[in-house]
Write a structure and sequence with these properties.
The structure is a single chain. The protein is mainly alpha-helical. The protein folds into two domains: about 10-55, no CATH class; about 60-170, AhpD-like (Up-down Bundle). The protein has helices at about 15-25, 30-35, 40-55, 60-75, 80-85, 90, 95-100, 115-130, 135-140, 145-170. The longest helix has 23 residues, at about 145-170. The two termini are about 15 Å apart.
Length: about 180
């Protein structure tokens, strides 16, 4: 059960412009994370804008992005993140359900390229230990230029933040998810 009230848009006509912006960017739905964040409209809007930049305005491919997001969902045990991305978003970006499942314990799987494995190691380290040893960074650097390194790092940091906020506030899963 959510720990804070989910904003009901019909009770807050002053938020209609922002609600429409949020809906338009999320396949016509006002997701529970945004209904939670609308308790502070400026945070709802900045979260939305940041999430869009992280997911859609980078050079990272969709497959890699989804691999990293799903892995963070597993590491943080954040069901909300996992349900939002598996299966719909993951499959749309080229992952199989078997690959999505393998991300729970990717090291022993037969899947994932050397580049994807470097990104997964980086995500694991940033999530579990925060400080990234030089050896881990140098391996990820072999596969990504400076721009992609910044984008990957911000993606990982952002989804760690997302998972922590979702879990701390116990945001309810979407109906039917």
């Amino acid at each position: 059960m959510a720990r804070v009230a989910l904003i009901k848009e019909d009770e807050h006509p002053e938020l209609s412009g922002l609600v429409e912006k949020l809906r338009a960017g999320r396949r016509g739905r006002l997701l529970n994370i945004y209904r939670t964040l609308l308790n502070t409209p400026a945070l709802a809007e900045s979260w939305f804008d940041h999430s869009n930049a992280v997911r859609w305005k980078t050079t990272l491919g969709g497959r890699l992005r989804e691999i990293v997001i799903i892995r963070i969902g597993h590491l943080t045990q954040c069901e909300y993140v996992l349900r939002q991305h598996v299966p719909t978003l993951a499959l749309a970006d080229g992952l199989t359900l078997e690959e999505c499942s393998a991300l729970a314990d990717w090291q022993d799987s037969k899947f994932f390229t050397a580049r994807e494995r470097a990104a997964l190691t980086y995500a694991d380290t940033m999530t579990r230990e925060i400080a990234v040893p030089d050896a881990v960074f140098e391996e990820v650097r072999r596969h990504f230029d400076d721009r992609a390194l910044v984008e990957l790092t911000v993606l990982i940091g952002s989804y760690n933040m997302n998972a922590r906020v979702l879990k701390a506030l116990a945001v309810d899963l979407e109906p039917g998810a």
